[in-house]
Description:
Elements: H1 3-14, H2 21-29, H3 32-42, H4 47-60, H5 64-68, H6 72-78, H7 85-103, H8 111-115, H9 122-133, H10 142-151, H11 159-169, H12 175-188, H13 207-210
Helix pairs in contact: 1-12, 2-3, 2-4, 3-4, 3-9, 6-7, 10-11, 10-12
Amino acid sequence: MEPGEILRAMKAALAGGGETALAAVEERLRDPFAVLIATVLSHRTRDEKTSEAAARLFEKFRTPQELADADEAEVAGLIRGVGFYRNKARAVIRIAKEINEKHGGKVPNSLEELMELPSVGRKTANCTLVYGFGLEAIPVDTHVHRIANRLGLVETESPEETERRLMEIFPRSAWKEVNDTFVMFGKRTCRPVGPRCPSCPLKGFCKYYRIGRGQSPKPKGRKSERRL
């Protein structure tokens, strides 16, 4: 199958489903800062918890200037429910302060500058570019990395390698669709445990299915987002 056919098959299988928590936040606020902070909150947290916590936080603190001056304990209380909420409260305040001090209160729109912010790794930076600024990038999380390797689109050991290969495989015009489509497909069909292979529209193409649904490729030496 061509890369475009793969995306179309995934989207057809997802038709009628909901959107990701990050998409919901971006739709509501249309703000790169909201997307950046919501992505940090989403680490090791279910979408619904991220969405609830982000909504509470942004109702009180909508700008880098407001969040930079916030009380850490108050922020922690607002985002309680996400994983490591106390560490994340400290992290998002630090991010806001650095945006104010180094970028004049504006979220930078380059991968390199975003990754210089505290607690911001490559996936978070790419999510901000795609969902906050509408720029072409491919954020790669565990879902994207797993599915790309299961299908046989790539044979990679780290999300960074997967990102580079997917940027070569998919046309630039499709980059913004890859993350959302793969993530939702990974949650509903190509799940980490108990993937729904018999009903998968890609089973005829999938390397994982052809070899008898053995162990999915596991990344070696994978680096996660920077520690909060």
